[in-house]
Amino acid sequence: MSDHRVILYNSQFELTIKRLAHQLIENYDDFNNTSIIGIQETGVYTANRIVQVLQDLGISVEFGKLDITFYRDDYRLRAEPLKASSTEIDFSLDGKRVILVDDVLYTGRTIHAAMSALQDIGRSSHVELVVMVDRRFNRHLPIKADYVGLTVDALEQAYVRVKWKDIDGADEILFFESNKQ
Length: 181
Prior knowledge:
By secondary structure, the chain is an alpha/beta fold. It has a domain at 34-154: Rossmann fold (3-Layer(aba) Sandwich). The protein has helices at residues 10-28, 42-56, 109-121, 165-168, and strands at 4-9, 34-39, 62-66, 97-105, 126-135, 147-152, 159-163, 172-176. A 5-stranded parallel beta sheet has the order 3-2-4-5-6, sandwiched between helices. The protein has a 3-stranded antiparallel beta sheet with strand order 1-8-7. Strand 4 (97-105), helix 3 and strand 5 form a beta-alpha-beta unit. It is globular.
């Protein structure tokens, strides 16, 4: 991993999470009739941190985890089978506002799969997207985030990775010049 640079870390990283949480508070107030859904696996880390900030501020919100493995358009094309995670949504989404959370928005295919999976679970009244990083270039589908922590202009051969203190030992966003990470 020597061909990378850190583009966001430690206190900046934490401020970005807090900013995303406060932007949500501005638009959702007390989160009545609202659920936050993290996309398995890495979007759950972002969602967990946002939910923690909200809880620290005394705001309670329904939180769930969404697996999209079998909704992906490439799951049959992979050399190795994908490992499915679990969907953990023990509440109804019918008529609710849903805040869908992922770590990196790149081609839009993950979000497309998540939207399909959400429709199978229930008919929400409204869905918005929160991402820690928006890679503006190389979008394959017309998908745009409503809340963005950091925007990165990266060409196809580049790679962006979000690392989490709880899992990776550090809160940071790494940028690789090539996708060999």
